[in-house]
Write a structure and sequence with these properties.
Layout (H helix, E strand, L loop, with lengths): L13 E5 L4 H12 L3 E5 L7 H4 L8 E4 L6 H8 L4 E4 L6 H6 L1 H22 L2 E7 L22 H20 L3 E6 L1 E3 L11 H11 L3 E4 L5 E2 L1 E3 H13 L4 E5 L5 E2 H8 L3 E4 L14 H7 L7 H13 L1
Parallel strand pairs: 1-2, 1-4, 2-3, 4-5, 5-6, 6-11, 7-10, 8-13
Antiparallel strand pairs: 9-12
Length: 312
């Protein structure tokens, strides 16, 4: 799924953000509003929260609709008002995808199909939230978009299936689509409880004075990209006509021991979890070439912002 380079267009004036009351979606809404867009959010609040967008609710150019992305009529009605759809509504719990693969597919595959059908009718562009999980457990990093697709969970498989739907609607109907394969996104508003990013969990522990748990030796690496940078990438993706798939990442590997050291966080070890990959890092150079985007927030600065939010 290759991408090509285009000249970015003027900001889209009306945007639909599915999952816009979530962690990443709420930051994207802020970026779009700053770009001068009118923003419509569709979110069933199963994982998102009104508190994430409460500071935007007074604005006349921000609209929240509480409904599922599986509601075709609602998606179609909202899409008809917009020229770009940022599709972030998803089932994101990898463990739940293993336990309930049919539910995962219903939300992540059927939900994407609903968005694409609405986009077809509205002649709108679709930008999809995809994931590094489509690559599985790589032998070498950083990974380019041309790397083998080998997901290790129904979640990763479903996200890649959603990407295939994007390609199919492009071929069949000429719908303009782009899949954004995100590395490990972190930052303010990420839930530190349950199925959440390790940085959010660590920052929550640090803010509460708790000892963190590191599963395994702590040398497993991830590519941590700050949510503010990710929101900027999404906004640029919507303004462009780039198609295919792009990595949104830093291209930098950081292990868990380094994260704990940055936070001054005491930790204890626990047995390694089955199925956890040893290394994950994505090459962001295609996004730089296609969108003119690059992550600019250092891990140290991003952790500082996340800690400040966690302690508030």
């Amino acid at each position: 799924m290759e991408s090509h380079v285009v000249t970015p267009l003027a900001p889209k004036r009306r945007a639909l953000v599915t999952g816009g009351a979530g962690f990443i979606g709420s930051h994207l809404c802020e970026a779009l509003l700053a770009d001068g867009c009118e923003v419509f959010v569709l979110d069933n609040l199963s994982t998102g929260s009104v508190s994430n967008v409460a500071h935007l609710m007074h604005r006349g150019d921000f609209h929240l609709v509480v409904e599922s992305v599986l509601s075709q009529d609602t998606v179609t009605e909202l899409a008809a008002k917009c020229d770009v759809i940022y599709h972030l509504a998803a089932q994101v719990d990898v463990r739940r995808s293993v336990a309930e693969p049919a539910f995962d597919a219903q939300v992540n595959v059927a939900g994407t199909a609903a968005v694409l059908e609405a986009a077809r009718q509205a002649s709108a562009r679709v930008v999809l939230a995809s994931t590094a999980a489509v690559y599985g457990d790589p032998e070498q990093v950083p990974l380019r978009e041309s790397a083998a697709i080998a997901p290790l969970s129904p979640y990763g498989g479903g996200k890649y299936a959603a990407e295939v739907y994007l390609e199919t609607f492009g071929r069949l109907y000429g719908v303009s689509t782009l899949a954004v394969r995100m590395a490990n996104v972190y930052g303010p508003r990420q839930d530190p409880h349950g199925e959440a990013g390790v940085i959010s969990i660590f920052c929550g522990a640090a803010a509460e004075g708790r000892t963190a748990t590191i599963f395994g030796d702590g040398l497993q690496t991830r590519d941590y990209v700050y949510v503010g940078d990710v929101a900027a990438a999404w906004a640029a993706a919507g303004r462009s006509t780039v198609t295919g798939a792009l990595n949104v990442s830093t291209g930098i590997e950081t292990n868990l021991l380094e994260v704990a050291a940055h936070l001054g966080l005491p930790y204890q070890h626990a047995p390694a979890r089955d199925g956890e990959i040893a290394r994950s890092c994505l090459d962001p150079s295609a996004a730089k070439a296609a969108l003119g985007w690059a992550a600019i927030t250092s891990l140290q600065d991003g952790l500082r912002s996340t800690m400040t939010a966690a302690a508030a």
